[in-house]
Known about the structure:
3-stranded mixed sheet, 43% strand, mainly beta, binds zinc ion
Amino acid sequence: MNTTWAWRSREPAKNPPDPNYPYGIALDVSLGAAAVCDVVLDYPAPGVGTWIITCEVCGYTAAVTAAGRADDPTKVRLPCKPREPADG
Length: 88
Ligand SMILES: [Zn+2]
């Protein structure tokens, strides 16, 4: 998996972190897919922006927002979907 950070703002996040997630959030966007990839993110994030996560195997791309706070995502579980044949 290829992880890229995209800045949205160089200013610190204005809102306080969600107190329900003092140690970050483990996201799961796989929706129960048979094959998944787990990606560990830098935690906390560098600041306010978006993690762009791309699977080199199937090309699946996910965007995960972060704010450089305690409630940032720590890892993400993504579906891995090998491409179907074009005539399928
Ligand atoms: Zn994949």
